[in-house]
Design brief:
The complex is a heterodimer of chains A (186) and B (225). With 186 residues, chain A is mostly helical. Chain A is built from eight helices and no strands. In chain A, α3 packs across α4 and α7 packs across α8. Chain A is globular and about 55 Å long. Chain B is mainly alpha-helical. Chain B has one domain. Chain B has seven helices and no strands. The radius of gyration of chain B is 21 Å and the shape is elongated. The chains are: A mainly alpha (186), B mainly alpha (225). Chains A and B meet through α2, α3, α4 and α7 of A and α1 and α4 of B.
Chain lengths: 186, 225
């Protein structure tokens, strides 16, 4: 797992270096490698697949405009996720956000961290996670689902690694307590 | 790489503008660049305004005169470095560290002022001349801080600060502390009213200028702020 992650990071760094040199194939490689995880991350903010797709395009345009600010060989993911987060927050602040409310059966699923899968059934966990405040959901998404270290999570969110760890711990604790209250956990 | 993974409109936008770019130097190199400009700016202002060390310099212990100058210069350069680090996505400074840095800058300036006043009362603050003396000192403070502030803000905005007002605040604090590091051994007055109103005021004012520059840049770049 660790080796895979290291190899993946090196691959992203190689893509970024090639992209900075003006190689379109490297941009496409970067896009292909990061499209899905970035969509999942954007979904945390907007809860709408179409809007997330639009924001993904906007994110890659911002990445393109700022590509000289990436300094090799630093890790690529904190740089890209920080830009992605900023695009999402700008969208939320701009008021362009859709006001429509999706019916329950239309709500996309909130991904469940593997550590939590054993705690209750998926439907209950999805509901619990959806009810968490966004900062808590964000940390769980970045650490538990996208596999980032707390140091990387801190770099993306502009907080200390310890703060990210505490935030994730508290979020999981809240979910556990709520499950216990509902008799979901022994 | 199969192009069907990529939306065609995005692909076209990128390929139309895909020129090679040179990556930004690491934050420590940009900090050295800013520090060099700050040093030249400080020297120029001292030369142009023909400033000389305060007359009671020998009454001050070494740790308070040159020692505190070195300490403040160190803190100032550190703050400039934090501003330049904040300017790159994914390298944001934790908000607690920002508060600690800015708070330390203000606190050290006040403590140095109090310690100086306790060791030497310096030139008395003559009645009716407080305003002119204050304006003179504030002018020197701002003139000394300006080169460092301008180069830091320029380097910050050449990157992509995602919290530009925080980067600007740090840059303003760094520039102001480096300036105060020099003015505290030049200004002949120790009177705390003069120090707190005009020198601490200049420090806080420069921080606000940096913060405001960040807000304006944010509004211009992202349409918000």
């Amino acid at each position: 797992m660790g080796v895979d992650r290291k190899a993946e990071d090196e691959r992203l760094t190689a893509f970024m270096i090639g992209y900075q040199k003006g190689n379109m194939d490297d941009f496409e490689g970067l896009y292909a490698a990061l499209k899905q995880p970035l969509l999942r991350y954007l979904w945390t903010f907007v809860r709408n697949a179409t809007v997330a797709e639009d924001l993904l395009q906007e994110t890659f345009l911002q990445i393109h405009r700022a590509r000289q600010t990436y300094t090799p060989p630093r890790p690529v993911r904190p740089w890209i996720y920080a830009i992605t987060r900023h695009v999402a927050l700008m969208h939320l602040r701009s008021g362009r956000r859709r006001k429509e409310v999706l019916a329950n059966d239309q709500l996309p699923e909130v991904p469940v961290p593997p550590e939590m899968e054993k705690l209750a059934d998926h439907a209950t966990l999805h509901k619990m996670l959806s009810e968490l405040p966004r900062p808590a959901q964000e940390v769980l998404m970045l650490h538990h689902l996208l596999g980032m270290s707390f140091l990387e999570v801190g770099q993306i969110l502009g907080i200390a690694a310890g703060t990210a760890k505490v935030r994730a711990h508290r979020a999981l604790k809240v979910v556990r307590i709520r499950l216990e209250e509902q008799g979901g956990v022994a | 790489m199969s192009t069907d993974l990529l939306l065609e409109a995005l692909r076209r936008s990128i390929s139309d503008d895909l020129v090679p770019v040179r990556p930004l130097p690491p934050a420590w190199i940009r900090t050295l660049q800013a520090a060099a400009v700050a040093a030249i700016g400080l020297a120029l202002v001292v030369f142009v305004f023909k400033l000389s060390p305060r007359p009671d310099m020998e009454q001050l212990p070494m740790w308070l005169s040159w020692g505190c100058t070195a300490l403040q210069l160190g803190i100032g350069v550190l703050l400039l470095g934090m501003a330049l680090r904040e300017a790159v996505p994914g390298q944001g400074v934790p908000i607690g560290t920002v508060a600690l840095g800015v708070g330390t800058a203000v606190l050290i300036q006040i403590l140095v002022g109090i310690a100086t006043w306790m060791h030497s009362t310096g030139m008395p603050l003559e009645k009716g001349h407080g305003l002119s003396a204050g304006i003179t000192c504030t002018t020197h403070d701002i003139a000394m801080a300006l080169p460092a502030l301008l180069v830091t803000v320029w380097l910050v905005f050449r990157a992509l600060p995602l919290r530009p007002s925080i980067a600007g605040l740090l840059g303003g604090a760094g520039a102001a502390v480096t300036a105060d590091a020099v003015t505290h051994i030049l200004c002949p007055m120790s009177d705390l009213r003069h120090v707190l109103v005009w020198h601490t005021g200049a420090l806080i004012g420069l921080m606000l200028v940096g913060w405001l520059a960040g807000k304006l840049w944010e509004r211009n770049r992202f349409g918000q702020g």
